[in-house]
Predict the 3D structure of the following.
Amino acid sequence: MKAIILAAGVSRRLYPLTHDTPKCLLEVGGRPIIDFQMEALKKAGISDAVIIVGYFREKLIDHIQKEYPDINCTFITNEHFFETNTSYSLYLCRDEFRTCESVIMNADVLYPEELLERLFASPHNDVMAVDVKECGREEVKVIAGSEEKLVAIGKELIQENSLGEFIGVARFSPEFGERLASSLEHLIDSGGKADYFEAAIHPLLSEMDVYYVDISDLPCTEIDFVEDLEEAHKLAKSDWFTNQ
């Protein structure tokens, strides 16, 4: 099992807080956001991580190497972090998840260790963490079919038809990883460097069985705006995190 962490972005929507700091190093509950993820990975027994860096990458690399020397981290640089999105970052590390089971996550998601436990406890090979709720325009939404299978994913889905929000953490088999790598190559070759990586997942949902795990009872949030950061501060005070 290998962790893939997407941490290259500029996070303009959080200026001035991110003027000189990667978003995942912003603190909630007295700790950088990415520390919650790294601790969850350690608890899950994952000792290999690939981190795609870009914006102020030296700060992030220094932090990870200092605080988590027991995790074997490979850093891949997205040199075009200003003008690209997560599709391009994931594309850059596609060879890392082509042949092994992986857990892929955005670095700006606050979640407790229980989330990974649920993903790994699923009997399915390919599973995505979904917050079952009513969604707004900004969330990456999913639509589910029968037997907890996902049939569509994207920001532009009709809100009323959506099951909830993909929270940005998923576990994929090497078989799906190979198909995802190919889908990313097609997306990037077609000019999709500014897309979210979910755009490469969407066409695969009609070809492969991908399931969801409901994490709506867990204190999770993807941090894009100041309001999200404020919510994360509140969530980080819960027993889910203070007992980690």
